[in-house]
Amino acid sequence: MTGANRHDVSQLEAVLDAIRVKRPTPPQRRHKHLCADAGYTGASALQTIEAHGYIPHVKSRGQEVTEIRLLPHKRARRWIVEVAHSWFNRFRKLLVRYEKLERSFLALNHLAAAIIAFRKVPLDINIIYG
Questions:
Q1: Which of 5, 37, 69, 95 has its CA 20 to 30 A from that of 15?
Q2: What is the pTM of this model?
C-alpha cells in the first residue's frame, strides 16, 4: 500500500508489484490490459506497465475528446468509480453523515443505491420526480 500523500505515477511500480491475483491457468495466454488516465503518459510509466506484462491503454485528454466526438456511444470505463462517488455525494445526508448508528447509515446507503439504480431505468414517466 502507498501513502495518500504520494503521487500515483511515482508509486506505479510498487502498486503493480503488490497485485497478486490467483488465476487458473488458461489454455491460451490471455492479454492483461491496464487502463490509466493522462497522468501515466510518460515514457517511464509506460515502460513500467509493459515490464509487468500489461498492455497499456493510456490516452491524453485531447485523444479522449476526439474519440467521444467520433464515437459518442463509447464511454471510458475507468470513470465508473468516480461517477458513482459523485452520485452518492449528491445525497447530503450521506455526505455529511448525521447518523449515529451504523445500521441507519448503511440503510441510507442502500436506499441511495436503489434510487441511483432506479434513475437509470428508462421509463416513459419519471416515478421519482413525478
A1: 95
A2: 0.51
| Residue 22 exposed, middle or buried by CB count within 10 Å (0-12, 13-18, 19+) | exposed
Buried b (16+ CB within 10 A) or exposed e, 4-13: eeeeeeeebb
The C-alpha atoms of residue 93 and residue 105 are separated, in whole angstroms, by: 9
- Residue 36's DSSP bridge partners are 58
Between CA 89 and CA 62 the distance in angstroms is 28
Q: What is the pLDDT of residue 110?
A: 94
pLDDT of 65-111, one tens digit each? Answer: 787 788 877 765 556 777 888 888 888 888 887 788 889 999 999 99
